[in-house]
Amino acid sequence: MPPGASGSSTPKPPCPPTSPASPGQESFHEHVHFNFAGSYRLALALAAHLEPQLPAALLAGRRQDTWASPERCARRLGLTDWNRLAVYETVWQRLQDAPFTNQLDHVPRLAPLRSRLLELRQALTPPSRAEARALYEDALARRPADFRLHENFAEFLEATGQHTEARDQWDRVRALIPHHCLPYYHLGRLDARLGNLPSAQTHLDQALARRPDFPEARLELGRVFARLGLTEQAITEYQTVIRHPLGSPTAYLRLADLLAAQKRRAEATATLQEAVARHPQAWEPRYFLGVELAVDDQLEAAAEQFAAAVRLRPDFAPAQLNYAIALAKLGQLDLARAHFRETLRLDPANARAAEYLRSLDPKVRLDEPPTAE
């Protein structure tokens, strides 16, 4: 934000954490990435340092010791709750893996983040959507060549279900920075969502031509190949992502799903077991491994995986339900009842949980295996 913009002389960053668990959390999402408040503090420090070097003409008419407020900066940057939610969801996913899961304060630090995510989701109402769109359009009218603004607007449009318009914004980003891999990746991803698979493949290939070491693009290309029926090419892309040092659990899940669809269940189960071993704090591989084990009647092993999934993602009703079913079949009826009740608390319309809970007693046979829902 240039000098001369109005704002408080002692601005306070918006939405700072109320009681940070450790020093630094007022400015960082984790150990390295600034949150908005931290970015603003850094920008303010740089501005104060650079101010003596600015031309006098640029400083003319500016009130002394006054820089743009955090709120004004957010408006000019096109920063809305939709962007904030996307950032916090990314941070949440990042914190589900090492090194964060090995830190002593891992569990306590997730609670305020979970609350912040809930707060942001509740703020995404139709009136706020209209206000956000107006904010983006105003910012872009001021700076139409700012590719970051087009990126922010594209993220908002996609989050609100306007995928064609979101693709148009990413196409503008591509025109502004044609050398960068990111717009091609998002164009490919959105083309796939819109059903234009050949165009999706072309754009993803272009992204990978600019950055071959781009696991997210390979993951998306694998999905496109799978939808085109090019199974072996899809498997190759997923395996490439799995071998990447930053490979995500998602690659394992998609590979396992593809293998299962090819009637290669033993390979699918082995893939999920490898995912659990490599990403022990990721709940999805554990949940789907539990399903596969339960189908094979390995109930104790299945219950172990469902228990871990429930611990890592307690608000996921299907994990609660399948854990309860496995416990009931193992004869642990009191614990099974508790998880059937928790399933119904999370999903009051869950008929299977209600039926099991009504009928659960030592004489009831529970022959139906847990299933993914």
Folded structure, characterized:
It is built from 19 helices and no strands. It is globular. The protein has helices spanning 36-50, 56-59, 70-77, 81-94, 106-123, 126-142, 147-159, 163-176, 182-193, 197-210, 215-227, 231-243, 249-261, 265-278, 283-295, 299-312, 317-329, 333-346, 351-359. The two termini are 49 Å apart. It has a domain at 283-373: Serine Threonine Protein Phosphatase 5, Tetratricopeptide repeat, CATH 1.25.40. Helix 6 runs antiparallel to helix 7, helix 17 runs antiparallel to helix 18 (333-346) and helix 18 packs antiparallel against helix 19. With 373 residues, it is an all-alpha fold.
Which secondary structure elements does this structure contain, and how are they paired or packed?
Layout (H helix, E strand, L loop, with lengths): L35 H15 L5 H4 L10 H8 L3 H14 L11 H18 L2 H17 L4 H13 L3 H14 L5 H12 L3 H14 L4 H13 L3 H13 L5 H13 L3 H14 L4 H13 L3 H14 L4 H13 L3 H14 L4 H9 L14
